[in-house]
Design goal:
Layout (H helix, E strand, L loop, with lengths): L1 H4 L2 H19 L1 H4 L5 H26 L2 H29 L8 H19 L1 H4 L3 E6 L5 E6 L1 H27 L5 H11 L1 H10 L9 H15 L1 H6 L9 E5 L5 E4 L1 H6 L11 H4 L12 E7 L2 E11 L8 E7 L1 H31 L2 E5 L5 E4 L3 H5 L3 H4 L11 H15 L4 E9 L5 E12 L13 E10 L1 H38 L2 H32 L5 E4 H15 L4 E5 L5 E4 L3 H14 L6 E8 L3 E8 L6 H9 L12 H11 L3 E5 L5 E8 L4
Parallel strand pairs: 14-16
Antiparallel strand pairs: 1-2, 3-4, 3-7, 5-6, 6-7, 8-9, 8-12, 10-11, 11-12, 13-15, 16-17, 17-19, 18-19
Helix pairs in contact: 2-4, 2-11, 4-5, 4-11, 5-6, 5-8, 8-9, 9-11, 19-20, 20-24, 21-22, 22-24, 23-24
């Protein structure tokens, strides 16, 4: 060893590799301060293997001759390891995923083990290198490399070049000033030149000088340009525009994209951000805030983010502006829409409050999920006490509960229900009658065309208390029923006595008795019309598809039998299907009977049916004297002026039948006779 140190050339070579190895090892703590765990691992691994390689190369010159060959072999193994550490670092630093790819890792491990085994077994086969003493430049153990060495070295150079390509591609794509880093990276590969020169001339020993290049690269990126090394990764084109700040928040560099946003900012390098761009300064402390910028009368929005450059103790940071105009405008539009919906919901709630006493929602199991606060005024319950309970808690009897379940089944099948005078129970035990409208609730986002029973998630009900109406109609119903019964019975008695008098008397007395019989018959007919009107008003109904042509044919036959002198002209299509019910026959009978009865001894009646796009129209025209105005009003709008009463309830019966079946009726103007049209909704079938 002393003899070796006496040779200046040996000292120079040993010192170069010793310094490079020690530098790499001393910089490991610096590299461990990188925040990115993968970049940190790759760089630490590179420095550790290169440092060990440099020390082994130093030892090669200093250890006794018998130990030099094993030292050289161990150095070859460690040197080959640096290649894989370099690739790992390059992949992680350039944000690629090669170092995570399990297939590539397995292939790399296989190649590494194969090459290392060839290196370690060289004393057996001697195909990797041979050694001999030489004094070409100075006395040392010369190494003659064989074909396996050059194959492994070629592979190492190819792999190292791949890493360099990844690094330089990042430099090219980056908008940051990468010239200093580019120079350092070139110096990293400079020892390859020495390797080539050593092959061509004996002036340099053939010894692979890579540790020296790694040491130069490590000093540059870890001691001089460490912040720039990591800032480069955040300055790719197409990403956020960036401003780079030092620990004092002075601008150290800017990207091309940020210059487009803030023209002239490149002249502010070295100035504090608060002076160069005061409007952006507040965003340094407001993480994820939105920066508004008006350009050419167009408002643009940018997400502002601050990130440390990368070292754990570094105060330098990158201020990034990401264009989120489309998303921000959409967000603001949605926000405005939400405010509009809130306003509409308030209006909706106000309308509901004005139209209904309370509103509720329930799930498919019949459990209440929402009850409006107004339920307390209507039924005496606090809404919170009802939520979670079954809706049938509000029903007073088992029959009402069963009916509520049947209604819910109908709604879950997709029906909307109008329920009249349904019994509910007040908190104090009293029964309350109410009209309830219940509609299905569908899954959000389901279009009307896609709605099915499977997409129903609940039901909403709107309740209006009808106690006063129920009491009034109950009273009317009782009075109506009692009067009809008593009047009919009394009239039947009067009719019987008047008939006997007509048979027993002669002359004017008999005529008066006949008049009593006719009047009694009219009053009995009036009570029957009143009964039918009450029945029509009390019935609930669901319209169905019916062909009105056979219904009219049956009515015409009935009227012709009752009035043999009547001439009825019929003009109908083969089919006229309307949304109605069979009781529409009552209206047809009343109209044709009225026409035949009041149009003279030989009445002429025209019956016509027409099918339009929306309606089925039935027109009945007679040649009688026409309807008085008060009876026209009763038939058209169901009203009667005081002191102008009609002759009977038949016209009101027609009106109530037609209108309760969603139809309308009209008395047309005519020079002679009466023309009445009935419009019924056309069926889609």
């Amino acid at each position: 060893m002393i003899a070796a140190l006496s040779n200046p050339a040996v000292v120079a070579y040993a010192a170069a590799f010793l310094v490079s190895g020690v530098i790499c090892l001393l910089l490991i703590p610096r590299a461990r301060r990188f925040e990115d765990s993968e970049v940190r691992a790759g760089l630490v691994w590179l420095l550790a293997t290169t440092g060990a390689w440099g020390l082994l190369k130093t030892a090669f010159f200093l250890v006794p001759v018998p130990l030099r060959e094993p030292t050289y072999i161990l150095g070859l193994v460690i040197g080959f390891t640096t290649v894989w550490a370099w690739l790992y670092f390059c992949s992680a630093y350039t944000a690629r995923r090669f170092h995570r790819n399990q297939t590539l890792r397995r292939i790399g491990a296989g190649v590494f083990l194969l090459v290392v085994s060839l290196k370690l077994t060289n004393p057996i086969h001697g195909l990797y290198f041979t050694t001999s003493e030489t004094t070409a430049s100075f006395q040392y153990l010369a190494v003659e490399h064989g074909v396996l060495h050059w194959s492994a070295t070629g592979l190492s150079y190819v792999l190292a070049a791949i890493g360099l390509f990844m690094i330089f591609e990042l430099y090219v794509r980056s908008e940051y000033d990468t010239r200093p880093l580019g120079i350092l990276t070139v110096l990293l590969g400079l020892p390859v030149v020495f390797d080539i020169v050593a092959i061509a001339t004996p002036r340099l020993i053939n010894f692979i000088y890579a540790p020296i290049g790694v040491a130069i690269f490590a000093v540059g990126v870890l001691l001089v340009f460490q912040e720039r090394l990591l800032a480069v990764r955040t300055a790719l084109p197409g990403s956020a525009a960036s401003i780079y700040l030092d620990g004092d928040r002075r601008i150290t560099d800017v990207s091309d994209e940020v210059v487009k946003l803030f023209p002239g900012i490149e002249r502010a390098i070295g100035d504090p951000l608060s002076e160069a761009l005061p409007e952006a300064t507040p965003h340094l402390e407001a993480e994820g805030s939105i920066f508004e910028l008006s350009k050419n009368d167009d408002m643009r929005y940018y997400l502002v983010e601050t990130n440390p450059v990368g070292l754990a103790d570094s105060e330098a940071q990158v201020l990034s502006f990401t264009d989120v105009t489309r998303l921000e405008k959409k967000r603001r539009q949605l926000h405005r829409r939400e405010r509009e919906l809130d306003t509409q919901n308030e209006l909706y709630r106000a309308v509901l409050a004005a139209s209904f006493d309370f509103v509720y929602r329930m799930d498919p199991d019949g459990r209440l999920t929402f009850v409006s606060p107004s339920v307390e005024d209507a039924l005496g319950y606090e809404p919170e006490a009802l939520v979670g309970d079954r809706a049938d808690r509000l029903t007073p009897t088992n029959e009402a509960s069963d009916q509520a379940h049947r209604y819910l089944d109908d709604v879950l099948d997709g029906e909307s229900l109008q329920i009249q005078d349904f019994q509910l129970e007040h908190h104090d035990g009293k029964r309350v009658y109410a009209d309830i409208r219940v509609v299905p609730i569908y899954e959000p986002g389901i279009s009307e065309e896609e709605r099915t029973a499977e997409t129903i998630v609940g039901a909403q009900g709107m309740v209006r208390e009808t106690m006063e109406r129920h009491r009034r109609e109950s009273l009317i119903s009782v009075i109506n029923r009692v009067l009809r019964h008593n009047v009919r019975n009394k009239l039947t008695i009067i009719n019987g006595y008047a008939g006997r008098l007509s048979n027993d008397l002669d002359g004017k007395a008999a005529t008066n008795a006949d008049q009593i019989v006719d009047t009694a018959d009219s009053l009995i007919e009036l009570t029957e019309s009143a009964r039918e009107i009450a029945q029509v008003r009390s019935e609930s109904y669901k319209l169905e598809s019916h062909n009105v042509v056979p219904i009219l044919d049956g009515v015409v036959t009935e009227i012709e039998e009752q009035y043999p002198n009547a001439s009825i002209s019929v003009d109908t299509p083969e089919s006229a299907v309307a949304q109605t019910l069979p009781k529409i026959e009552t209206a047809f009978v009343e109209l044709l009977d009225n026409a035949a009865k009041h149009s003279g001894e030989s009445p002429s009646i025209d019956l016509e049916v027409a099918v339009g796009t929306e309606w089925v129209t039935v027109t009945i025209a007679d040649d009688g004297p026409g309807l008085p105005e008060n009876e026209r009003q009763a038939l058209s709008v169901g009203t009667e002026e005081p002191l102008a009463h009609g002759s009977g309830l038949g016209l009101w019966l027609i009106y109530w039948v037609v209108t309760t079946l969603d139809g309308d009726i009209e008395v047309l103007e005519a020079d002679q006779g009466t023309t009445v049209t009935i419009n019924l909704p056309k069926s889609d079938l």
